[in-house]
Amino acid sequence: MGEADCTRCALHASRTHVVVGRGAPDAKVMFLGEAPGRQEDKLGLGFQGAAGRMFDAILGYSGLSREKIWLANAVRCRPSIEGRRNRAPTAEEISACRHWLERDLSQVRPEVVVTLGRIAYESVTGLSWDAQRRAQPVPLADGSGVAFPLYHPAYLIYRRDLMTVYRQDVEALRALLAAHQIPVGDIAGPWAME
Ligand code: SF4
């Protein structure tokens, strides 16, 4: 059974699509989100809608694009309250879906895993999220690369006051990519989220 028809946890029963990992199969940079929301579930694609526009702005300011990275979620089917509201995935759902995260890590072998929000960070590192330690690289347990924690883009929809802090975090990401000699393009326009 593959990722697209996975039944490893109960979320399979209510999903429309599994939002599978996608992007460049040899990407040096992986971006890891939390879980699909309503629009992602409907379309089968990661980071759509308002959070998707935030995400694309972050990528552009990093000098990256969806074609150059690997994009995946810690949990690949939508967790919801009876199909109406999104909810955070449970520990059991995160644990079940780590199978696919580990598959991606072993196949793509990224040097930098940019984690978006608490659940992505905790899923890939096994450490507790600490907002004060954002934008600081953390070695992955297997020595294959580093995690680089950022806030989840959707958080900025409600916390516009964090835009400047987030821009500085993305500038720190550009510096990290340069230190790893990972090529990036020019910054795509101004910081589009302010
Ligand atoms: S959330 Fe992950 S483990 Fe659960 S059914 Fe979907 S793909 Fe499988």
UniProtKB/TrEMBL annotation:
- Write out the entry's keywords from A to Z: 4Fe-4S, DNA damage, DNA repair, Hydrolase, Iron, Iron-sulfur, Metal-binding
Residue intervals of the Uracil-DNA glycosylase-like domain: 20-177
Enzyme nomenclature, EC number = 3.2.2.27
Q: Which Gene3D superfamilies match?
A: Uracil-DNA glycosylase-like domain
What are the boundaries of the signal sequence? none
Query: The organism sits in which domain of life?
Result: Bacteria
* Molecular function as annotated in GO: 4 iron, 4 sulfur cluster binding; metal ion binding; uracil DNA N-glycosylase activity
Q: Does the keyword Kinase apply?
A: no
Q: Give the protein's recorded name.
A: Type-4 uracil-DNA glycosylase
Q: Does the keyword Ion transport apply?
A: no
Q: Which family does it belong to?
A: Belongs to the uracil-DNA glycosylase (UDG) superfamily. Type 4 (UDGa) family.
Reaction it catalyzes: Hydrolyzes single-stranded DNA or mismatched double-stranded DNA and polynucleotides, releasing free uracil
List the GO biological process terms. Answer: DNA repair
InterPro entries, alphabetized: UDG_Type-4/5 (IPR051536), Ura-DNA_glyco_family4 (IPR005273), Uracil-DNA_glycosylase-like (IPR005122), Uracil-DNA_glycosylase-like_sf (IPR036895)
